[in-house]
Design goal:
18% strand; 42% helix; 5-stranded parallel beta sheet; 5 strands; 5 helices
Length: 130
């Protein structure tokens, strides 16, 4: 499984990478939305994790850019990973095109459950990580 994590905080990227390593997943991190969008252009990902609050382009804009593509990459499952707890945040994320929303700090079981749900929706193998 190939995972993209767009997150400006290097420590958060490291923690999630360590979690994904346990499951045998490969993760590429991007320090901002622009770098993340470039990686989407260059690679095929099974899932994208996107932070919302980053310098420059925010996560919701990045999600909208991915969803506006005219190729299969427009349908990549997207999980928002955020510390923001605004009451209408989940609705904003779903409206932008996110599939799931996780709140920081992210627990390994919550991350794997969210990825598993998304993979199960479209994967003939039942969405097993690894």
């Amino acid at each position: 499984m190939n995972v993209l994590f767009i997150e400006d905080d290097a420590m958060n990227r490291r923690v999630v990478k360590d979690m994904l390593d346990v499951a045998g997943a490969e993760m590429i991190g991007a320090e901002d939305a622009e770098a993340g969008l470039a990686l989407v252009e260059q690679h095929d990902f099974d899932v994208a994790l996107v932070d919302l609050r980053m310098p420059g382009m925010d996560g919701l804009s990045a999600i909208r850019h991915i969803r506006a593509r005219d190729d299969a990459k427009a349908t990549i499952p997207i999980i928002v990973v955020t510390a923001d707890t605004a009451p209408d945040l989940r609705a904003q994320c779903i409206e932008a095109g996110a599939d799931e929303v996780l709140f920081k700090p992210v627990a390994m079981d919550s991350l794997f459950e969210a990825i598993g749900r998304l993979m199960a929706r479209g994967a003939p193998d039942g969405g097993v990580i690894g």
